[in-house]
Each structure stands twice: as structure tokens, then as C-alpha cells.
Amino acid sequence: MVGFLLALPPMVVLFFLILLPAFEAVKFSLGLVPEDNVAYASGLNVIRSNGPTLEVFEKLFASPFFQQNVRLTFFVSIVSVLILLVVAYVLALYARFGKGRLPSIIRTLYLVPMFIPTIIASYALIVFFGDNGLLEALLSRFGVPYQTIIRQDWGIIMGQVWASIPFAVLMLSSGLDAISDDHIEAAKDCGASFATILWRILIPLNIVPALIVATFTFIGVFGSFTVPYMLGPTVPQMLGVSMQVNFTAFRQPQTAVAIAVFSFAVCAVAGYIYVVATTRQNRSQQ
Amino acid sequence: MNYTWFLHSKPLRNSLTLILVLGFGAFLLLPLLTLVLWAFADRWFYPALTPQEYSLKWWGWIVGRNEIVKAAYWSITTAPTVTLLSALICLPAAYAFSRYEFPLKRVFYVSLLAANAFPKLGLFIAIAAFFFGLGLVNTFWGVVLVQLINTLVLMTWIPAASFSAVPRELEEAARDAGASPLRVFFTVTLPIAMPGILVAGILTFLAAFDEAQGTLVVGTPNITTLPVLMYSLVNSYPEPVGAVFSILLATPSVILLILSRRILLSGYLAAGFKGG
Fold first, then answer.
1. Interchain pair B261, A22: CB under 8 A
2. What's the pTM?
3. What would you measure as the largest C-alpha separation in chain A, in angstroms?
4. How many C-beta neighbours within 10 Å does residue A193 have?
5. A219, closest residue in chain B (CA to CA)
6. B133-145 residue pLDDT tens
7. Do B121 and A223 touch (CB under 8 A)?
8. Beta strands in A12-91 (DSSP E)
9. Which is it for strands B53-54 and B41-43: parallel, antiparallel or unpaired?
10. Which chain A residue shows the shortest CA-CA distance from B50?
11. ipTM of the predicted structure?
12. Which of B118, B144, B199 has the highest number of chain A CBs within 10 A, making it the mutation to test binding with A?
């Protein structure tokens, strides 16, 4: 009981700072407007109703801007996860199995983005990869034409991958480290090639860390603001940017909150897939 | 036709690896290097590869700016407050997770990740809307609370792991020698767990200090911290201003993270995800 009481304070904070606001957001997006909340009541285009209504969402889904934004957000989130998984897996494998000085350099190098706040990283990517940036200057020396991806969808993906590398490689590496050398040696003795070992042993045994990386990166990118704000196009916007603009500049808190609730729903599905996949994996191992 | 023939030649394979490693290093480091060059540039016109003239004038310019002094004030008041508050809330919980069995323990432990299970900006918008009703928007405490969210998991998981790493025999020996439980905690358990707690404190401080998104949504327009100021600085001033500001802002992170790197690498992060 002592333990329960000691562990309670962070739970209370989570309740008041996450669950309750999320619950209030769902209510607000369903047209239930608390009149004592000045920000809600004084917002523009507020839809009020006595019972729950889907009117806010119907209006939202009918907006072509929102549809474009959703498409961009899904595209960026999914492609970022896929590229990050491939890059991080290659790095983790190399750091685990490579021999010599290079792998040890990699083991330090991949941590660098952890030291740099995202907003600074985004700015650094702009001055290097952007229009008239250093990369373009370098390439022009060799007469190579250059078309920047900054301020485009691929610019956001690049920023997300850059910033997510440390977490992804750390997770995948810790999983790979847990796979014993005996296992791999045994397979080698039987004449298995590296591709077979990778496909039949390493990837299956390391599936849970990979799923953690995929889920957390997807959710992180889906709800991001800094990277798409700095590196993405002005139109369409990712949902994080769109929420912020609706909330502050457009003074449409209900629209912003409805987009937030939509993003909760999408990420809940991602979380659910992760939970189902990991429990199935745990069951099949028993 | 087999396209992988070159993989069977060792020199070719080695040089391919080297190219890939160099490419990766360039992708990570060259943008940062460009930023450092910009911070010391007076004039740097495209397509020169390095600045035409170097100077420190932007450093002097930036230090005296009124808005920056104000933002620095908010940054160095909010981040330590968040760290202390987070320690008060989470350290007892960390000890409980390490030493006691209680109902819902596993659920509590995992639910600390809740903040990461939500799309961040959606959560911040929901919080800002909720804070409006409580009069917390645009206030010091509103910003402290929104920054607190990201720190709970760090401040609980890492100290919990270091409490668990304290050898029980030492505590029992102290008890046998007649020390009270409180005395054992403060003279044996706490000192041994201290490095982990310090790392948690450093990471918590940095998480709060570098937090920009939630602070932007909840704190605008009055409580503008340094990272939030960066959003407007990079759009309204020439490159050296953003670059100098970036270096000033990144310096605390780099110093503190290098100091704590050894302990970080010992796998707290991954251990936490696996459930301690």
C-alpha cells in the first residue's frame, strides 16, 4: 500500500494533464461547449449543440484543405517510418557486427542528433540543404544541378529521419545485443549466409524493438510541429502545423481541437496494432 | 547477370562501406558545421564554400537584445522549476517501483509513457484549450505544467533502474548494524543511486529547457522561452543571427549530455522500454 501511495503522484499529474484535457477535447469537438471557458465560447465558427453531434467533423472532413493536410501527414509519417527503419537497421547491424574503427565511430556518430534540439537541427538542415545552401554551392563546383527538397514534403521526411536516428538505433541495437553470439555462430556453422541469418534469426528475434521504433516514430511524426513548420511547404500543412494555426492565428479553437481528436484516433489505431502485435509475439514465444 | 559481384571483392566492399559511412557522417554533421560557419560569418555570398569575411559582431548584437534577455529569463526560471517539481513528484514513485509490490504496478509503470502515446501537438492543443478554462494559458505555471509532461517518464524510469541496482546486501548489513530504515536510505541507498538520479535530473532539465512546441502553444505571447524565440528569429533576421542563437541554445545540451553520456549509454533507455 505504501508503494501504491508513493507511485500515485505521477499518475495524478497524468490524469490532470493528459486524460482530462483529452476527454474535454473530445467533448468540445462533439459540439458540447462549456460556456464558462472563454476561449471556447469566444472562438470563431463554434458549433454548439445540447447533445453530441458529429457536425464539426463533417465540416472538417468536407474541407479540401483538411483532406490535403491529412494526405500529406499520412504520407510523411509512413515514409519517415519506413526510411528510418531501413537506415537505423543498417546502422545497428553495422555497429553490432562490424569490425575495426569505423563501427566504433558510427556508434558515437549516430548519437549526435540527440544533442541538438529539433528546432536547431531544422535550421541547420535549411542552411545546408536549402536554396543557395552549402550543398548547392558544393555541387555547383562540379556542375551538378541541384533542386532543394526544403519546403517540400521530402524536406519534412529528411528532418524527421535526421532527428529520430538516435532513438531508433539505440532501440534496435539493444535488441540486437540481446541476441546471443552462440545462436548466430551455430547458424554460421550450418553454412547459413548473412542474408539468411538476418532474415531468419535477427529480424524475427528483434521484432518487438522494431515495432516500438515504428509505432513511436509514427506517432511522433504524426503529431509533430517543429520539423514540418520549418522544413515543410506552406500549403498543404501537416496536421500539427494546421492545429497550431487554427488555434492561434485563425482563432478557431474548435477546429483545432477536432483535428487534435482526429490525430488521437489515428494514433490510437497505431498503438493498438503495436499492442496486438507484441502480445501475439509474446504468446508465440511461450 | 549478378549485380552483387562487387560484394565478393574485399577492397571494393571496404570502399563501398567507407563511402556509406562518410555519406552518413556528412548527412549528420555537415548541416551543423554550416551553422557554425554562419555564426562567425560577416559576409557569405553564394556560391562561396566558406564565408568571405568573418566577424563576431552578431554575437555582440544578440547578447544585448531586449527580447532575448526576456526569453533567457523565462528559460532559466521555468526549466529548473520543472526539474524540481518533477523530482518531487517522481522520485518517491521511482523508489516505489523499485522496492514495493502493489496493485496496478505494471499499469502505472507503463502508463508513464502516455505522453508519448499521444501525437504531441494534438495533446498540447487539448491542454491549451483545457488551460484556458483554468486561467493557466499565457502564465508561468501553465508553461511549467506543459513542460512537466515530457519529463515524468525520464524522472521515474531512470531513478527506478538505479534504485534497483543498489545491492540489497549493503542495505541489510546497515540494518543489522542497527541503522534505522530512514538512515539506511539516506546513507546507503541514495548515495549509490545518485548518479542515475543526477542523469535523470540533467535529462529532465534539458527536456524542459529545449521544449518548444508545448511552450509555444500554451505560453504565447507572454511566456516566450529561448527555443520558442527561435521560431520567429530564423524567419525575421539574417542567417548569422539564427546561427549564433542556435549555438548559444545548443551549448547547455551538448555540455550536459557529454557529461552524462557514459551513464546514458549503459542502456537505461532501452531497459525502461523492456520494463526495467
1. no
2. 0.91
3. 73
4. 10
5. B119
6. 899 999 999 999 9
7. yes
8. none
9. antiparallel
10. A134
11. 0.92
12. B118
